[in-house]
Amino acid sequence: MRKVICILCALVLLTGCVERKYIERLGIITVIGYDLLEEGFLEGTLIFFQFDPNANSVSQIITSRANSAKGIRQDANLKSSKQLVSGQLRLAVFGSKLAEKGVMRVTDTLARDAAVSDLLYMTIAEEDAKAILSSNKMEDAADIGNYLNSMIRKNIRNEVLPYSTLHQFQHDYYDLGRDPILPMLNLEDGKPVLRHLALMQDDRLVGKLPVKKGFYLKLIESRFEAGHLEVGLPREKFKEYFKSDRNHEDIDQMFVTFDEIKSKSKLELISPESLEFRVNITLEGRILEISDDLKIQDPKVVKLLEEEFASLIEKEIESVVEVFKENQVDPIGFGQLYNSKRPLKEKGEWREMIPDISVDAQVKTRIVRHGIIK
Question: Per the CATH hierarchy, to which homologous superfamily does domain 222-369 belong?
Answer without folding.
Answer: Nutrient germinant receptor protein C, domain 3 (3.30.300.210)
